[in-house]
Design brief:
24% strand; Nucleotidyltransferase, domain 5; 17 helices; Ubiquitin-like (UB roll); 612 residues; 27 strands; homodimer; 6-stranded mixed β-sheet; alpha/beta; globular; 5 domains
Chain lengths: 612, 612
């Protein structure tokens, strides 16, 4: 087993556990920070400076080039270079986090968040009952607390709470509803949860409701993936099996509750002190999470059960927080464009940038939103899970053993997560590989891998030798026998390129359709915001090379990190953000590409890679 | 096993199952009817006329005396005389039910009930989705239904309900909350439950919410009795065992849910069509039912958790009706005077009679309420379960084999329920026996059973021979060897009389204290209302003889049946009745007898039986 180390980031105190060899930048990302890495993690731009406060990291050659001896000794490192080999406490200066001169929110820290929680905690000490004062427990409490209504939980806890600390109690209320009565003074303890429920990944952030500070972050793979890696297979399961919905719901619920356990353990709190939660996910995930059959999303005209925001009660969802906890489910735009897109829009203030701005969230599904002139249109494309490693012969997620960076010059250089032997290739490695193969003429714009003798004459022999033919198709050796975990060369296959073309083309075509609907050209885009954990590690130049992103100057492309999580946190902490989410939904229009005759045209041309 | 027969009463259609030999009057009582039986069931007054519509009953000599041959052939019988020996359909004319010229409600039928349910059902047919109309399911519904808020259940049921009957659905709402969406048109189906949760007996009535008609009645013994027969032992269990409350709550809940199953089976409905419930019980029972620890009721100053009415949700109580069903828990007066007393007051309009009126509910606890001049005072006394057969050596409940009627003239005449051998003595039999022993000088006013030679000279020898001495105490043979199920004579023991004196004295003393507080004498009482299933079968003359009731002319004493159940039904069917319950609570004062120095005095003198 790979040993796990904890990395705590200051000043927020957020902690994650990572395996040995994980770059600090990855650890920071898992903790919800988007580091500033314009060089794409090459160690050359010196923007992702961090300071090791506790624990040791041997400096890399790039770091020794970047920092003088004193700063090296003081623990300054580059997050993209430094690898975790023991438990660390690391400080991230604000300057190392993504920030935008254009006031575009680019990370889930740094940007001020309105903290105006609905939860109120009031500590009171009441007189004990006597023969002259045998009022009921509730009447006694209501002399000191104004609560027009109360929960059964509060009533059930009341007699014990009153008598445990000599009639000193703390009342917990939300909008006039008394949620609970706790013994003693617990006014300092009030937590909330912001959740991003993705098709593949679930990310939970535990937030202090009164300070707005993040307390802990934890993520897990959505266990629904074992029933199919995209939303359509899960909808099909609900349509075809009478217990399908219950099985999928239980799967995601148990993982969410597991994350809550992790968060409570990290933070050293009890889950009963979590009184609010906000959930953002795509429409299939949100509906399954709420126990609403998503079957109608599986057939024309792709009808969701709801689009308005939901305000639910934790116990009704079997959520492992306070049973009376208030749960906010993000509004949805329609079809497959769900609450995560709305959350991303409020996280980034997409419609307040004032110029045409595009938000692209590349996950198992690709969601695309375009804001222009006070209006928003949004769509989703079945990007497929290629970027998450699925359907790629040697594909894998971005974890230890994954080739995550490929560059080709005299030879083929790969970087493997965890500094170990290569076990497969992850999404960024796939994009890098395709871009480099294109640049070197090994891949043509149709996506065909050329024969060794067809490749440009200038191609170094060592690289040319990597092209291998099997059954009339060409493939490319990404990792040699020596670099590979199996001892056999690790290949990128022709069919892997085809999978990439499908995913890439779908995203590109979706963007084109939206631009057309607003009568805009690619160059009109003032900002292209890349959301999602994956988006953070894409090298802009390579994504532009393969045509995944609109052809805009690279400086207009911004990584915005896990915008869905950050939008959920905003909604968690202030009603005005919940209202903003509602406003976004009402002023947005969902574009159903399946009904758009132009989409198939755009899609087939977008399948082609751009000319260099 | 004793075979069970079903008896259906017309015109209400209520059905109960009873064992062979049960008098029809008992079956009627179990179905919630209070028959008019001024002769105390002797078959002499001819007031409890019923007509057998289906099934056979051989006429008794009393019936042949009462009815001519044509009427006998037409099925006319006396409910107090006729025994069930097969399944029957029986019509009860209104004239045979208890009714009062003084406009005092005396039974849970006959009195008009306000029917103004909170539940609304609206059937709509919506257009199916199309490519031009891909609105969410919820938006589609809300074009036709006005619902400011909705339950998660409704949302979860929505997609299937819409598609099951071609977008024809019925919306179920209550006060602006959409509770559910049902496929097709179900507007005719809406039911409610009125429950009396007694320490010993649980009675549930299923009511059609739109017509107000009773649909079915069912009752069970409260399984908490296996943990102790009075509320104090149950409070003690909650105080002393960490799981005590949960055990007791689960016991009563499973019995309540079992009754709901029975009711649904009787009525042939699904429990999902039950949308409302109203529960009335004493304060310990109501608190345990709601999962509120009753421990503070077990010590001075006897503090209840709540007195205000509660409005809860069925799922939060694990009640087996519609999960979003609205549940009303009656307000409580204080100490041990709970919702059943409030329910009894609204059932009988006690405070609207306009003259001093007393309501006495004799159960395991005795609750007493006195209304005078627009005010109400109420108290409870630990009557103990003697009247329900407990703590009496040969005591038993009023079921097959119980001696339920005792009279003494030349010899001792007993009547045994089910026309079988005597297995024990029930509450009414105990009162009868004590009254008859007093009348015949076998018992003196201190409650001592005299020696055979001390008894009056006029006592027939056959009766005198029934007095037997054991260890210096005298006891009385109620059933001879031949009449007894065991083959041994069945005795009423001296200590049984002492138990009766305690119970009797507590009730009498409670009444005296309340009268004193209002400065009233017994003779000022215009009405004495006896509530509870037991109260219906007491022979007034005997209850007056032993001093259980205030010395008023017998015509001022009225049997009001299960007033708690009827009050619960009133509250179930109209918000104004729920409000009336709240008003009653606010204008009532709870009198804690444990703090009253006069009570012990009153109690010791009330222990004595009155002079003849």
């Amino acid at each position: 087993m790979n040993k796990l180390f904890s990395v705590t980031f200051e000043p927020s105190g957020r902690t994650v556990k990572v395996s040995t060899g994980t770059p600090l930048a990855y650890a920071a990302s898992r903790a919800g920070f988007a580091m500033n890495t314009p060089c794409g993690g090459a160690g050359t731009c010196g923007k992702c400076v961090v300071q090791i406060r506790s624990g040791n990291c041997l400096p890399t050659p790039e770091e020794i080039k970047t920092f003088d001896e004193n700063r090296i000794r003081a623990g300054f490192r580059l997050a993209c270079q430094t690898r975790v080999t023991e438990s660390l406490v690391v400080e991230i200066p604000d300057s190392s986090l993504l920030q935008s001169g254009q006031k575009i929110l680019t990370a889930d820290t740094g940007e001020p968040v309105t903290v105006s929680p609905r939860i109120r905690k009031t500590a009171v000490t009441l007189p004990a009952p006597s023969q002259d004062d045998a009022r009921s427990d509730l009447d006694r409490l209501l002399t000191a607390i104004d609560a027009p209504s109360l929960s059964l939980t509060a009533l059930q806890h009341l007699p014990r709470a009153l008598r445990l600390e000599a009639y000193s109690v703390t009342a917990v209320s939300s909008d006039g509803l008394l949620l609970d009565v706790e013994p003693g003074n617990t006014t300092a303890r009030a937590f909330g949860l912001a959740f991003d429920i993705g098709s593949t990944t679930l990310v939970g952030t535990l937030v202090d409701l009164f300070s707005g500070r993040d307390v802990a972050v934890s993520s897990r793979i959505n266990p629904q993936t074992s029933f199919g890696d995209d939303v359509l297979t899960r909808i099909l399961k609900c349509r075809e099996e009478s217990e399908g919905l219950a099985i999928l719901r239980n799967a995601v619920l148990s993982a969410v509750n597991g994350i809550i356990d992790d968060l409570c353990e990290q933070a050293g709190i009890e889950n009963g002190y979590i009184y609010e939660a906000a959930f953002a996910g795509n429409s299939t995930m949100q509906q399954i999470f709420c126990g609403c059959d998503p079957s109608p999303l599986g057939e024309l005209p792709f009808v969701p059960v709801f689009t308005a925001p939901l305000r639910l009660r934790a116990a009704d969802l079997d959520l492992a927080i306070h049973p009376e906890g208030r749960v906010f489910i993000f509004p949805q735009l329609g079809g497959f464009v769900g609450g995560d897109t709305v959350s991303g829009i409020i996280a980034t203030r997409l419609d307040r940038i004032g110029k045409p701005a595009l938000l692209v969230d590349i996950g198992t599904n690709g969601e695309i939103a375009l804001a222009h002139d006070g209006r928003i249109i949004a769509t989703s494309v079945a990007a497929g899970p290629a970027f998450e490693g699925a359907r790629i012969v040697n594909g894998m997620r971005a974890s230890s053993g994954a080739i995550e960076n490929v560059s080709i010059d005299e030879t083929v250089k790969i970087h493997i997560i965890g500094e170990t032997k290569a076990a497969g290739i992850c999404g960024t490695g796939l994009i890098d590989a395709a871009a480099e193969l294109l640049r070197n003429g090994i891949l043509d714009t149709t996506g065909r891998m050329v024969d060794p003798d067809e490749a440009p004459a200038c191609l170094p022999d060592a690289v040319r030798a990597r092209i291998v033919s099997i059954h009339g198709e060409n493939h490319f050796i990404l990792a040699t026998r020596e670099e590979s975990a199996t001892g056999d060369p690790l290949l990128l296959f022709q069919k892997d390129i085809r999978e990439l073309q499908l995913a890439n083309g779908a995203i590109r075509a979706g963007i084109q359709i939206l631009l057309k609907q607003f009568g805009l050209a690619e160059a009109d885009l003032a900002a292209v915001l890349l959301a999602g954990a994956f988006g953070n590690y894409i090298r802009k130049a390579n994504a532009l090379r393969i045509g995944m992103l609109p052809a805009v100057p690279p400086e207009r492309i911004h990584f915005v990190g896990n915008a869905a999580s950050f939008g959920a946190k905003r909604a968690l902490l202030a009603d005005e953000e919940k209202d903003y989410a509602g406003t976004v939904t009402r002023k947005s229009r969902h574009v159903d590409l399946s009904l758009d005759p132009e989409f198939m045209n755009e899609f087939s041309s977008a399948m082609m890679f751009p000319e260099s």
